[in-house]
Amino acid sequence: MELAQVRLLVSDFPACYRFYAEVLGLKPQSGATEGPYEKFSPATGSAGIALQDRSMMAEVLNELGGTATGHRSLVVLRVDDLDTYCEQIAARGAELVHGPAPMTDRMRVAHLKDPEGNVVELQEWLLLRN
C-alpha cells in the first residue's frame, strides 16, 4: 500500500488553489485554477496534497452537501529553514497564526490557515542537542 495524497474538500476552489500554489509555493499538476480537482507537490518527496471541489464530492456522498465548519484537517509540511520560509510566504500573503516557535527540543513549527480554515503546520526538524 502507498499513500497517494491527502485530499481536501473545499468550497472556494480558486482561493485554495492560489494559497497552495502561490503562497505556499507547491507545484500544481495540471494548472486547473478553477477546479474541480488539482494535485500539488512539494519540490522533493512523493507525497502530495490535492484539492477537490466539495460540491463535486457531495454528488457522490450526499452528506458532504452542507457547509463544513471547524477544523477538519491539519496539513503538515517540512521545510529546511522555517524562519526564511515564513518570511517568504508572509510576503506572498500568508498570515501566521502561531510561531515560528519551538514545539519540542527536536522541532520548531509555525501554523497558518488556508482560505477554507484548514490548518497548515510548517515544521523544521532540528538535530538532536547534547
From TrEMBL:
Residues 2-125 form the VOC domain. Gene3D superfamilies: 2,3-Dihydroxybiphenyl 1,2-Dioxygenase, domain 1. The lineage of its organism: Bacteria, Bacillati, Actinomycetota, Actinomycetes, Kitasatosporales. This is VOC family protein. Pfam families: Glyoxalase. It comes from the Bacteria.
